[in-house]
Amino acid sequence: MNDPERHTHDPVNPISILDSQKFCTEVSRNSRETLNETLNQESSRILNLHSNSRNISRTARRNKIKVASYRQRLKLYSKFEVKLESKILSQDAINFCLSQLKRRNVKPKGRRFTTEDKLFALMFYKQSGRCYRKMRQIFALPSRQTIMSMLNKIPVDVGINKIIFDNLKESASKLNNQDRICALIFDEMSIMPHIDYDKYTDTFFGFQNFGFEQNLQIADHVLVFFIRGVFKKWQQPIYFAFSFSSTKSYILTTIIKTLVEKIQNCGFKILVTICDQGQPNQAAINSLLKESKQRYIHKGMEPKRRILLGDQEIIPLYDTPHLIKCIRNNLLTKNLVWKTSEEILVANWKHIIDAYYSDQTCGELRALHKITDLHVIPEKIQKMKVCYATQVLSHSMASTITLLVKSSKYKFKNN
């Protein structure tokens, strides 16, 4: 007999069917969300690529236009340069014109200058700062900060600077023998005692320092040496130092000997030394003359009033402005006596005062129209002004005195 239970089927569970439908629905929803998210990401990436490609295309078009513009400018510059070279212009003028053309459409903060451009601008700036500021409003020139930044990179220290003498040696090779003849000039002036800090070298300066000798005394004088061409117009500072009070004569003697030797090694020939009549300067010159006299005698030569250093004779001179001032200052208190074979001539400052007052009576026909009380009256004379001394000891004054002497209406009195 068949078992009736074996042919009986299990009934279907409705809950399991609903769960499976929910699962399928959830899976489908998640798939759609994932797909939408993926599509969104790809779409944004495609949009970014498209935007980048458009930017690249625009940049390429701009660069193409710039290249074409630059090519056209180069053609114009080359033609302009040929035209400039055909005219009578210096190379500096040509370079300046080309520099202005290259920067005519560039904003001030976007301009870039070469070292030659900065040096060319520095030449104008040193002549007049106000004029240079006005020129910057017209031409494309470096700012003051740019020029100062370039100058701050140049190493300049107290004493002998090796870089300066290296450049002098190179410059001497380009000059002929006559243009190498120069004068060694030195002078000293008073300064306000103070200490300064140099942020570029991280040092303090303002103490006494000669390069080979220094101490912690605060300097109140500065000493400067420079050389200047005799036949060719050029000059170059070669040495500076700070000192407490006036520089001692033995230090000046040492500096002069050292500098003359180095200048000679560079290929230059010193013809004269020029300084004022300060007491240390006179003592240093006299010391060098005394040593030179011994060298002349040792060589069996007749002594001369020359400074003999090495095989070179140097003529010591005092600068003309100080000589004129000293003549005027001595004439204020002393008589000038000139002895000849026939007579003795005497001149004093009273003669100049008499000529000045006599000339004032001529009204508009004055010959000494530039002479004032500041030139003549001893209590009013400004003794440090060279122009007052040169004007009062001028040809006009000599002519007026001569005319008054020859005139029968006036006769000078020797006091």
**Helix content bin:** 40-55%
Roughly how many Å apart are the termini?
Answer: 182 Å
Strand proportion: 15-25%
Ranges where pLDDT stays below 50 over 5 or more residues in a row are 1-10
Tally of helical runs = 13
Using only CA atoms, what is the Rg? 44 Å
Could you walk me through the main structural features you see in this protein, from its secondary elements to its overall organization?
The protein is of the alpha+beta class and 415 residues long. It is 51% helix and 16% strand. It has 13 helices and twelve strands. The chain has helices at 14-86, 91-102, 115-127, 129-136, 144-152, 162-172, 249-266, 279-298, 320-333, 349-360, 373-376, 386-392, 395-406; strands at 181-190, 196-198, 203-205, 207-209, 214-218, 221-229, 235-243, 269-275, 307-309, 312-318, 336-339, 344-347. The strands form four sheets. Strands 7-6-1-8-10-9 form a six-stranded mixed beta sheet. Strand 6 and strand 7 (235-243) form a beta hairpin. Helix 1 packs antiparallel against helix 2 and helix 3 (115-127) packs across helix 5 (144-152). The radius of gyration is 44 Å and the shape is elongated. The chain starts with 13 loop residues before the first helix and ends in a 9-residue tail after the last helix. Mean pLDDT is 83; it is low at 1-10.
